[in-house]
Amino acid sequence: MKKTWMVFLVSTVLAGSLFVTACGGKQEAAKPAQNQGTEQQAFHFGLSGLYKPFNFKENGKLAGFDVEIGEALAQKMGMKPDPVTNPWETIVQGLLAKKYDAILGSMTVTDERKKVVNFTNPYYRSGSQIFVAENNDTIKSAADLKGKKIGVVKASPYKTLALTYTDKDKVIEYDSDLTAIMDLPTGRLDAVITDQMVGFRVIKEGSAKIKDVGKPLSHDDQAIAVRKEDKELLDKLNKALDEIIKDGTYDKISNKWFGRNILGDEK
Fold this sequence. Notes:
By secondary structure, this protein is of the alpha/beta class. 40% of the residues lie in helices and 27% in strands. The chain has nine helices and twelve strands. Strands 1, 5, 6, 7, 8, 9, 10, 11 and 12 form a nine-stranded mixed β-sheet that branches.
């Protein structure tokens, strides 16, 4: 009787231990699955990081209009924003090499670029503008640029534009629009052709004594570039862009950096 009771007791304890172990094993196995489910997919977007006030580094961190638009779009898409810097002259190559998912760095839509990438709807509109030193009274329009030294950003449409007004050896290329603009008061350059928004921001901040002259030389649509095959991402970005425009997020970001809505009306 005692032997039978002992066998029963040991069997019961062992069975209970196996049950607890089995339950514990199931709980441990469930944890990784839960963690994986909460992990947020990243939205990697490329920019130069040298195009203030659109994208630049401040206290070691990327900031600017482009960066905040990218963050807002990522939020709408349920993704984590991850801005990635790349030299502007190879930024398209970086996209094609899958270093990032998109280019959100104030890229002008051109027919040439459309051959290799797809673009979203415009997220702001601007134009090419001539800027000169504040005390320069000799350049009042594009007609006065002949034979003058003009500063432009490397691998930008502004170089092509400048070549229609002055000699090839008079077009000086820079890594940054701001560096070129800062050379205007020094006399190293006679003029700079760049985006209106860049020059207007400098004038507003008073960081360089410059002024805009003449009418805009061109109208530009700035959009987000994605790889040709990434049609799903293109649709998601257009949807997210439409949402931030409608809910006022776009207005808030634009007014913070420029004091007005820079998307404007289609021209």
